[in-house]
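Data availability (excerpt). All sequences and predicted token strings are deposited with the supplementary files. A representative entry, M50 family metallopeptidase, is shown inline so that the format can be inspected without opening the archive.
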Amino acid sequence: MKKNKKKRAGRWGRLLVSLCFVVIGAFCGVWIAQFLEETQLSGRPVLEQVLLVALLLFLLYVAMLLQIILHEAGHLVAGLLTGYRFGSFRVGGWMWLRTDGKLRCRRLSLLGTGGQCLMIPPEMRDGKFPYVLYNLGGSLMNLLTGALFLLLHGLLRGLPAVSLFCAMLSATGFGFALINGIPLRLGAINNDGCNARELGKDPEALRSLWVQLKITEQAARGGRLRDMPEAWFALPAWEQMDNSMTAALAVFRVNWLMDRHQFVEAKDLIDEILERPNRVLGLHQGLLQCEQLFLALMAGEDQARIDAICTRGLQKFMRQMRRYPSVIRTGYAYARLRLRDSQLADRLLEQFQHCERTYPYQGDLEGERELLELVKVRAEETAG
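Structure token line:
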């Protein structure tokens, strides 16, 4: 009954988000139509009409991108106000993080995410730390800037193009505020508003948020997962992992086991998680399937089993995440151990070396290099 209720909540959440985007599009469409009428577009050459419409659509994309940046900035400001310290700030594939006392720019693209602001939380006291404003900061920033740009839209009517752009910023701001601020369950995950409401009711989920932020802090300093406290990766019972925040901790434990080369335990845990796919993010599911394929290759499982894991869906995911170190490593293992394609393997090694120059977490790269060496050893053993 509880599981069906969560599924219904997830469907309703996705429906409301879709409806919100439709409303944003409708408002922007009306404003664009008014602008085109004022500029007397119908009397212009066809090419000019097409270019103008394309430019307006591009401006709408820019408005959405700016509101994503403002949303993450809202988390940043809210975190600083409640005792957090700066960790990292990512927009698209560009990421700024503090490491060795300096602010550095790195590259990290995560499928399905437009941006992310990760802060270093204050220490927990009696199992608690501030979380409400940090979670709601992004939505509040979208709401405030939405109101500001709506005011500017009215004040700048004498500058039609600027006024239209302000209207777009206002619509997307209010839309993002609603999508993220109203408590919604979106598929397997809770949005910011739902987290702000639910974390206080679920001590395990609150601990999981704190642990994940602390892991990210250590990773930014070049730390290895294997060297972090084992207590951070302790898992509650599966019945307590209905919250995606807590379920994500199981994924971190898999990564911790992989970094310690405890491959049997990692395989067993991956199998358990993938039996409950609705509890973790789609991104995490894909990364776990990559690890499942890697472990099957290293264990010398038969080709039928390997081909069953390496589905078209997983191959598509690996193409989309082709710059992610663990995905490159899995692709390398597949090229060496399944395809026996040395040229493809060499290209993947070059891709990994390129990734090393821009990837933000040096400890992760150190662990991936060790796993790549194990692949080479395994390939030589099977070749002999």
